[in-house]
């Protein structure tokens, strides 16, 4: 058993690591919960892309103040499956997704 002043530091560090992991897991779980809710509620397809032998479907919604985009992929002869969740992305006035901010030539 660890005793003395080092034991408090050790347990404090363990607690910090645990809480960071807990918050990350909690955030991920909430994000996927909202994605499932979006797929149950939505009736409109917002984005569609066909590439080769796959189709991509994009569903967008604002749920409880969170802007969420869910991507579903369907292969040519397969079933659709969940691909990703994109929470709170930034868009410009043309509603294009921004992958950066600022001027890339100057940065």
Automatic annotation (TrEMBL):
<protein>
    <recommendedName>
        <fullName>Phage-Barnase-EndoU-ColicinE5/D-RelE like nuclease 3 domain-containing protein</fullName>
    </recommendedName>
</protein>
């Amino acid at each position: 058993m660890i005793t003395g002043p080092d034991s408090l530091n050790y347990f404090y560090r363990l607690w910090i690591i645990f809480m960071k992991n807990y918050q990350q897991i909690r955030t991920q779980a909430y994000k996927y919960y909202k994605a499932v809710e979006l797929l149950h509620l939505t009736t409109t397809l917002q984005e569609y892309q066909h590439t080769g032998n796959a189709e991509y479907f994009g569903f967008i919604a604002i749920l409880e103040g969170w802007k969420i985009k869910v991507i579903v992929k369907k292969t040519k002869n397969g079933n659709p499956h969940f691909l990703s969740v994109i929470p709170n992305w930034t868009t410009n006035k043309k509603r294009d997704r921004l992958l950066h901010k600022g001027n890339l030539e100057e940065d």
